[in-house]
Amino acid sequence: MFFGGLLLSAMTFVGCTDEYDDWAEPQSNPQEEAAAALPGYTATGVGAIDLGTVTADSVQVLTLSTVTLPEGATVGNTRVEVLPADGSSAAATTINVGNNGNMAVADLQAAIEGYYGKQVLARTFNGHVYSNIIIGGQAFLVDAGTITITATPALVFADYYYIIGALNGWTITSTDLPMFKEGEGVFSYTTVFATGNEEIKFTADYNLGSWAGAYGLGNAVSATSGTLTDADGAGNLKAPTSDECYTVTVNINPDVMTYEWTKIEPAPKTYGTIGVIGDFNSWGDDVDMTEVAPHNWYVEVELKQGGFKFRADDAWTDQWAGANNDVSSSNYGTAEFNGGDMKVPDGKFRIYFNDITAQYIFIPAE
Questions:
Q1: How many CB atoms are located within 10 Å of the residue 11 CB?
Q2: pLDDT the model gives residue 37
Q3: Whole-structure pTM over 0.85, yes or no?
């Protein structure tokens, strides 16, 4: 029992077996007690980690050197106390690590987002590694040294992406111009880009208020297409010509990251007003929407479960809905011109509609 006696004399007593289990979940801002070094027991970091390519629930962040323990002694658990290497925060987060050096992907993703947000950029952390060595039901705290963890978070698609540009005064908090969903990671916006309003960026709802993570120009491949980047300092996307109507379509899937401008010809019909009508107002007078950009309309309204339509100029000549469109199933969609009533649920919504594409978004209002 010489080795066990050495542990007893050299290491700080932590507690009984039922106490070290408390470290099974990540903890924020821990304050480790003094820990002893065990000769030959050290942690070593691994290479850069890209969580966007990890398909398992855990990923290796370190290796532990092997050291011979006496009979009956085991490694109870291991955890890493992480801090941003750039010194941007002094509040550490402790994350549990398996004795194989694997950390839960969700825990590492959460740590990155907690310090830096969801921008898909490599982040570097300093990590201090601790283990509990268990002897006779008692846990002894061992300092396994420091490592560096460099990890890129997986892309988390936002619920909504918003145009930020000359169209809305480059107001980074603006929610006037949400993009319409075309597919997983694919969004579009259609409007007239007047002289002086040709340039835009776009950003995720979780980044509103900060330019960090805003998407912009990576490289122009042609006058109408190119690549995107969300790196700091990205350039602006610019409509190919002024005072004409375009659809800008973006694909932000990490393996694609492209944009494309498509000119709308001939020039689309214009309307004096677009309104909403339905069971929520007993099919009475239209509730007029506000034109927030050419051909794009917005209103906030309390709805009642039942039928609903968009219509132009307070008349039934041009109307949009569609019996197959049910906002309870999807709050994005494309209305059918002169179609049957679409279905809406109870609730207060911020409603957006494009009178060229007939695309709509219903965003629950707080």
A1: 22
A2: 84
A3: no
